[in-house]
Design a protein that fits this description.
This protein is an alpha+beta fold and about 120 residues long. About 35% of the residues lie in helices and about 20% in strands. The protein has a 5-stranded mixed β-sheet with strand order 2-1-3-4-5, covered by helices on one side. The chain is globular, with a radius of gyration of 15 Å.
Length: about 120
């Protein structure tokens, strides 16, 4: 790996990531939620993670996903390493996910579709 790529990853806080949230939004062909509503959820997520200092060295990372393939009940979010899949991710629901799951470490059962934690190969 080049030193430039490694430095970029370090500036982004990649070595500190403990949880990664993916949000299905800005779809090419919206199916699970209205495009405008999903983009409002994305903007809310970005703002709140920054306000809570959860990005970079705060241990969190976020990614906008074009489609997480559930295609119903969206916006859909996915949190790793727990593999927690959430439905109906409006700003209000995302606030619960941020507070209870990303900060508190407990999945938000009311909006959980399923979970499938990543397992290490030991």
């Amino acid at each position: 790996m080049s030193d430039e790529l490694k430095a970029k990853a370090e500036r982004l806080g990649v070595p500190c990531i403990r949880r990664h949230i993916f949000l299905c939004c800005d779809q090419t062909k919206p199916k699970c939620s209205d495009k405008e509503a999903s983009l409002q959820s994305w903007e809310y997520l970005k703002r709140r993670l920054a306000e809570q200092r959860l990005t970079g060295e705060g241990g969190g990372f976020r990614t906008k996903a074009n489609c997480l393939q559930i295609c119903a009940g969206g916006p859909i979010a996915l949190v790793y390493p727990e593999g927690a899949w959430y439905h109906s991710c409006t700003p209000e629901v995302l606030e619960q996910i941020i507070e209870r799951h990303l900060i508190g470490g407990q999945p938000v059962e009311e909006f959980l579709i399923t979970d499938h934690p990543l397992k290490s190969e030991e």
